[in-house]
Design a protein that fits this description.
By secondary structure, the protein is an all-alpha fold. It has 22 helices and no strands. The protein has a domain at about 200-330. This is DUF445 domain-containing protein.
């Protein structure tokens, strides 16, 4: 195994996930830069481990390093041979070659120093302003967060970008497709079922019961009932109820004639003869049946008029009479305080929840069909109506701007805290694996450009000297 392989094996051992989980904070960073920072474990592991793709990129970096170093050695050899040839009197060309190769070595060494200084101290010497990435990692993270916040999370940038996207028209065109409306309907149904399942019936029942009771207690109901009753009587809406009651009363009297006469006879004094009691009972029954029959068949019966006057007066008392209103309020409190009423209020939520869950689960239920139709209609309007599109775009822009303005620091801190949680050594190796190959071209270009510049300078100097 070569030295490079040994180095890679040792480095991989140091990136053991158990170890990197404990090394979440950069050991080279200044304490003030990493204080009170929490970094997601997944983000730290992703940066502190080397994947197979990273290994392949690192091998590419090594090959480019060998190429750049080989080119440096080549120009160094050319320089030695050119100087030897120049000293041996081989001709003027040797001076040109020596100057070009000498400048190429200078350019190669200078660029090697610059590239190496990004990741480590050249030759292990603690030269100032070298090993920039491992020593300035946290500052780079802060600068990157500020750059993103200022240039990508500003109000104007967000508004312009969202306005250029045209979310309203795109969303409308997407939602107008039946399969998409079906999908959204299914997702909304699943969310509704999930929400109703998570909610505890006892909690919701308590809230609903308290809300109804509190609202009923806070608002006087007598005037409202009075106004409603007054309007019902004025419109004659109560007459159907009266018709129903007297019809049912007549039928009941017909069906229970014997029971009624027996009840009358049973209430008579004991000293009266039984045939007298029977005659009295029959007479009372006939008069009562006649009264109810006349009231049923005569819309202008005096009893109906008396009932109308009573209801009218009662409606007026409900609105203006203090005693009547107070009695209604006391009755309201007694009714609401009864356990049966509270149980009814509580059971109403159970019934409503069961109905909603059943409708949400049934694909052909009226609820889901109406939601689907509404989504299709909304999508068509959003796709075709510029006013609706502008309104939707405005909502989205306002929401996005609010999120950006309110949580900009939290968003950018995700960058700075994540970078702060990376291990300096591992981060350096990972970054070098990703961009190191391109950086080696700087060394190659420095060698070539340095050689050409040296050749040009030497040629100009000779020309001016001649």
């Amino acid at each position: 195994m070569c030295a490079g392989d040994h180095e890679r094996v040792e480095w991989m051992e140091r990136t053991n996930p158990e170890e990197t989980g404990e090394r979440g904070v950069n050991e080279h960073a200044h304490p003030a830069a990493t204080e009170n920072r929490t970094v997601p474990a997944a983000a730290a592991r992703a940066m502190n481990t080397f994947s197979a793709a990273d290994e392949e990129k690192q091998r590419g970096v090594r090959r480019m390093k060998l190429t750049a170093t080989g080119l440096l050695l080549f120009v160094a050899l050319v320089y030695v041979l050119a100087k030897w040839a120049d000293d041996s009197g081989a001709g003027a060309w040797a001076g040109y070659v020596a100057a070009a190769s000498e400048a190429g070595m200078v350019g190669a060494l200078a660029d090697w120093f610059a590239v190496t200084a990004l990741f480590r101290h050249p030759l292990g010497l603690p030269i100032p302003h070298t090993a920039i990435i491992p020593t300035k990692k946290d500052q780079l993270g802060v600068s990157l967060g500020e750059f993103v916040g200022e240039n990508f999370l500003s109000r104007d940038v967000v508004r312009q970008r969202l306005r250029a996207v045209g979310i309203g028209s795109r969303l409308g065109a997407w939602l107008a497709e039946p399969q998409h409306a079906d999908r959204v309907t299914a997702e909304l149904s699943a969310a509704l079922r999930g929400a109703l399942t998570v909610l505890r019936d006892s909690d919701v029942q308590a809230v609903v019961g308290e809300a109804i009771t509190r609202r009923a207690d806070a608002q006087e109901i007598a005037p409202g009932i009075g106004k409603m009753l007054e309007k019902v009587v004025a419109d004659g809406g109560h007459k159907r109820v009266v018709d129903l009651i007297v019809t049912r009363a007549h039928d009941w009297l017909v069906w229970h004639d014997t029971e009624i006469m027996d009840a009358v006879q049973g209430g008579a004094p004991g000293w009266t003869p039984r045939f007298v009691d029977k005659k009295v009972g029959e007479r009372i029954y006939r008069e009562l049946l006649r009264f109810v029959t006349e009231m049923r068949d005569m819309p202008t019966h005096p009893a109906r008029g008396a009932l109308d006057r009573f209801l009218t007066d009662f409606a007026s008392d409900l609105q203006s009479d203090t005693d009547t209103r107070a009695r209604v309020e006391r009755l309201k409190g007694e009714v609401l305080g009864r356990g049966e009423v509270q149980d009814l209020i509580a059971s109403a939520w159970t019934a409503v929840r069961s109905m909603i869950v059943s409708a949400a689960e049934d694909e052909r239920s009226e609820l889901r069909l109406r939601v689907r139709a509404s989504l299709l209609s909304l999508g068509a309007r959003m796709a075709e109506d510029p006013k609706v599109q502008a309104k939707v775009d405005g909502w989205v822009e306002s929401a996005a701007v609010y999120v950006v303005s309110t949580y900009r620091k939290e968003i950018t801190s995700l960058i700075t805290d994540t970078v702060a949680g990376w291990d300096a050594e591992h981060t350096t190796k990972k970054i070098e694996a990703h961009i190191g190959r391109d950086l080696q071209f700087i060394r190659i270009n420095g060698t070539v450009v340095g050689s050409l510049a040296g050749l040009l300078i030497y040629a100009v100097t000779r020309a001016l000297g001649a």
